[in-house]
């Protein structure tokens, strides 16, 4: 239970259940406020320290959203939105916990149960980033669509399981004649029937061999099927992940996604290959054994089943704690892998700032949280398993006592009691095994839920139902009344712009003015929320996403290279390119010379993310990559901002080759790099404020003139004058082209 601070206005007897530190204000500037959930009300402290309160009622709803790295909670009633709070996504787990407890408390009040939430229940929702709802075992049934291609193999596996189980039940039944017709008569002075003994022993051996052969074949067959189901599941999840829009990845951590596709699918595969098979065998064994027991002696069979209700009650009691616990373990483990995924790729920065100890402490904290969650679950599990074993031992003791009593009254023979004990050993053994499978089943259910969270996510950039085929793109762009929002925050507002085929447009403006968002919309990484973008007169949402992007060339400020050879990286957008095409693209990008100086030329391996190459070399390879696909629309996003002057000249030569005959949109903070642009588009706060050539915009002395003047003279913090920037060359096109 949370302890309220002295400033929290709690009423007498009111208990705080959860709180959230809100670190952004309505304008998304850093500020401190707070939300507190109690068993009666939702309280909110604003940045000035004042408190507001809303009594929890069925009409009150709390909604969660995250867009562009900002989380949001909004409070609504039947008619309006009452309040909204924004925060950085580091607080999202606390927000989701508060949301889950709010919903639970609201449902309780709606049902007429106003009892406060207890601490144990509150802890159960202290995990998760995606969904506060614990996984249901029924989610495993959704794996059926992945099992459908292998239904005949699974049917054969079930038949083999049935036959193997039946064969294993033959041996106890043969102990009845072995005891009653061989051993007991021998003790009474009768000669042993050797032929009968050999027949019974042959029957025992034959049943064992048949059960072994069928069990081996069944296990091998189902293991092959489960591996293929797991592989299909991983492939489907990764394929779906690649089709999701960029906003999905903005709120997810790499390590968590890797954990889902890797370890969670492996866990499901192990469940399908081993534990699901064991569960089916246990069920068949219990049903068939119970049938045989009732056929031998119904009264003794009823005594055998006495522990079943208690074990079933315990399984029901423990199951919910197990499945929420395993969900929590999965998410905490995702945090551990996320620390690794953050630190290892950024090891150069870690070492440069001497932050090894800090990252080690981050990992220790995540690892400690993982240990604590596992310890808590193991505490429950360690009590459950021995208790089930104790109940089965007590059941066996009761059967012995009742069986001896029946033998003493000559109602059953010693052979029947012996067979019963043999069957009961198998019956209780399978019962104990089934209780243990509860754990792995809940683990698999938690893993399946996390995978289906990905598969159920719908991309915000959907494919059209009947896509328009792109025969030959000219590259003309028409932006009509363009608007775009991250959640409720408007980023682009009312943008109208016509770009002719082959024209080069320079986008300029302060950081945060919407330049990168605009080119993201043109690339269709996001879909517009208002207006439309038309390419050659056709709304780009009518094109197939992949078909459209094949005509887009993108050169980023920080080029990304994959682990592989230089040639493979250049040919990434056109895998079937010939070596001659690759070399021609490299020559045009002014990369051929330095590539030949590498140890193996075009077959030289570049490290992960291009380690081993300079920034300028990586950039020229990315330009060659864009040149090779011969795009009709070219996007240059600060392509030369992070390199030195000499390297910039080399890259600029490559860009001059790249822009020829293509519709080009270039973003640059250094205005001198846009000297070849036909028109400059000045953006401010998501709007276009000026359009024109360099000379025209300077003559207006507006927003562009102020940007240009600010860059003419750069003065560092010490006041040193670095001199003027080179003036941009006037555009080759006349002013009438605006």
From TrEMBL:
It comes from the Bacteria. Pfam families: ABC_membrane, ABC_tran. Residues 477-710 form the ABC transporter domain. Residues 719-738 are annotated as: Disordered. Keywords: ATP-binding, Cell membrane, Membrane, Nucleotide-binding, Transmembrane, Transmembrane helix. The keyword Nucleotide-binding applies. The keyword Transcription does not apply. It is found in: Cell membrane. The chain crosses the membrane at residues 154-176, 196-217, 300-318, 383-406, 412-429. SUPFAM superfamilies: ABC transporter transmembrane region (SSF90123), P-loop containing nucleoside triphosphate hydrolases (SSF52540). It is a multi-pass membrane protein. Coiled coil: none annotated. Residues 155-443 form the ABC transmembrane type-1 domain. This is ABC transporter. It comes from Rubrivivax gelatinosus (Rhodocyclus gelatinosus).
């Amino acid at each position: 239970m949370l302890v309220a601070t002295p400033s929290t206005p709690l009423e007498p007897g009111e208990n705080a259940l959860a709180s959230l530190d809100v670190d952004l204000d309505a304008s998304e500037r850093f500020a401190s406020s707070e939300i507190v959930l109690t068993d009666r009300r939702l309280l909110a402290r604003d940045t000035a320290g004042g408190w507001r309160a809303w009594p929890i009622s069925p009409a009150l709803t709390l909604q969660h959203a995250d867009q562009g790295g900002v989380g949001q909670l909004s409070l609504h009633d039947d008619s309006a939105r009452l309040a909204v709070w924004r925060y950085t996504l580091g607080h999202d787990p606390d927000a989701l916990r508060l949301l889950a407890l709010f919903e639970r408390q609201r449902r309780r009040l709606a049902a007429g149960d106003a009892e406060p939430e207890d601490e144990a229940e509150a802890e159960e929702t202290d995990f998760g980033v995606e969904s506060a709802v614990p996984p249901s075992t029924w989610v495993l049934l959704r794996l059926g669509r992945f099992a459908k291609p292998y239904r005949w193999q699974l049917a054969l596996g079930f038949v083999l399981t049935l036959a193997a189980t039946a064969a294993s039940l033959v041996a106890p039944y043969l102990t009845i004649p072995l005891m009653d017709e061989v051993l007991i008569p021998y003790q009474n002075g009768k000669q042993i029937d050797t032929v009968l003994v050999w027949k019974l022993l042959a029957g025992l051996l034959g049943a064992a061999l048949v059960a072994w052969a069928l069990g081996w074949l069944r296990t091998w067959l189902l293991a092959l099927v489960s591996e293929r189901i797991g592989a299909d599941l991983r492939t489907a999840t990764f394929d779906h992940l690649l089709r999701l829009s960029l906003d999905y990845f903005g709120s997810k951590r790499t390590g968590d996604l890797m954990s889902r596709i890797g370890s969670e699918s492996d866990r499901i595969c192990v469940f399908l290959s081993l534990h699901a098979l064991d569960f089916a065998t246990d069920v068949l064994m219990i049903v068939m054994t119970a049938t045989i027991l009732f056929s031998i002696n119904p009264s003794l069979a009823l005594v055998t089943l006495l522990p079943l209700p208690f074990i079933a009650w315990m399984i029901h009691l423990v199951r919910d704690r197990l499945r929420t616990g395993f969900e929590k373990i999965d998410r905490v483990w995702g945090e551990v892998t996320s620390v690794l995924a953050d630190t290892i790729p950024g090891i150069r920065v870690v070492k440069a700032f001497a932050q090894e100890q800090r990252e080690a402490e981050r990992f220790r904290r995540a690892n400690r949280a993982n240990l604590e969650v596992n310890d808590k679950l193991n505490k429950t599990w360690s009590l459950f398993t021995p208790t089930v074993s104790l109940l089965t031992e007590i059941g066996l003791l009761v059967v012995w006592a009742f069986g001896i009593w029946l033998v003493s009254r000559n109602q059953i023979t010693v052979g029947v009691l012996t067979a019963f004990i043999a069957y009961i050993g198998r019956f209780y053994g399978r019962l104990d095994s089934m209780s243990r499978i509860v754990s792995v089943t809940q683990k698999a259910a938690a893993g399946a839920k996390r995978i289906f969270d990905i598969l159920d996510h719908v991309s915000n950039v959907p494919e059209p139902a009947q896509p328009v085929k792109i025969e030959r793109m000219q590259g003309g762009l028409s932006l009509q009344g363009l608007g775009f929002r991250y959640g409720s925050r408007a980023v682009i507002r009312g943008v109208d712009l016509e770009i002719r085929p082959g024209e080069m447009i320079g986008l300029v403006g302060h950081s945060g003015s919407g330049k990168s968002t605009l080119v993201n919309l043109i690339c269709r990484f996001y879909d517009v929320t208002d207006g439309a973008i038309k390419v050659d007169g056709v709304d780009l949402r009518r094109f197939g996403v992949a078909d459209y992007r094949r005509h887009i060339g993108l050169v980023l400020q920080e080029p990304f290279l994959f682990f592989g050879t230089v040639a493979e990286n250049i040919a990434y957008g056109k895998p079937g390119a010939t070596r001659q095409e690759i070399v021609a693209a490299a020559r045009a990008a002014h990369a051929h010379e330095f590539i030949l100086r590498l140890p193996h030329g075009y077959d030289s391996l570049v490290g992960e993310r291009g380690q081993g190459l300079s920034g300028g070399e990586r950039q020229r390879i990315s330009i060659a990559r864009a040149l090779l696909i011969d795009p009709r629309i070219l996007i240059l996003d600060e392509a030369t901002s992070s390199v030195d002057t000499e390297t910039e000249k080399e890259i600029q030569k490559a860009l001059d080759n790249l822009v020829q005959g293509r519709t080009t949109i270039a973003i640059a903070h250094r205005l001198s790099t846009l000297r070849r642009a036909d028109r400059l588009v000045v953006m401010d706060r998501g709007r276009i404020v000026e359009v024109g050539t360099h000379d025209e915009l300077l003559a207006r002395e507006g927003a562009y003139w102020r940007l240009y003047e600010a860059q003419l003279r750069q003065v560092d913090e010490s006041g040193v004058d670095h001199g003027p920037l080179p003036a941009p060359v006037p555009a080759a096109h006349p002013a009438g082209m605006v």
